[in-house]
Amino acid sequence: MTREFAKELKHAGFPVPAYRLGHHFFPHENSVGWSDSARDHGIMIGHFDLENRLQDLKDGYYCPVLSDLLKACGPRFARLSIVKDIWFAQCDEPETTAMGQSPEEAVGRLWLALNGKSRSSD
To answer: 80: buried, middle or exposed (CB in 10 Å: 19+, 13-18, 0-12)?
Structure first.
């Protein structure tokens, strides 16, 4: 997941579960103490981060995994498919299709569509 898409989900109010070890995260642009590499590529949350950087985790951009995204879509989610290298996430009621470069992006975009959230401009 890209920084920009994680940021878009956060600004749209995506429900973030409890921070867990091993999940991908991007530090906020203004957070201090992070390397350029961490800012550009993100990090995997470790014990140190959970114990000493909780506020940074809250301020930054959490990258939900596919199961988080599916859970957020709830029973409206119907199917996930791939055609060539484009992923499609669909629901039947209301009939909605979203696509992305990964299954996470497709389901995340479906969540945005189902919840009336448009792309973030900031």
So the answer is: middle
Q: Which residue reads 């696509």 in tokens?
A: 99
Strand, helix or coil for residue 35? coil
Q: Which helix (H) or strand (E) holds 81?
A: strand 77-83
pLDDT, one tens digit per residue, over 46-80 is: 999 899 898 899 999 999 999 999 999 999 999 99
Residue 117 neighbours by CB under 8 Å, 6+ apart: 12, 13, 111
CA distance 19 to 23: 8
**Block residue for tokens 């709830």:** 74
Q: Which pTM was predicted?
A: 0.86
Burial of 62 (0-12, 13-18, 19+ CB in 10 A): buried
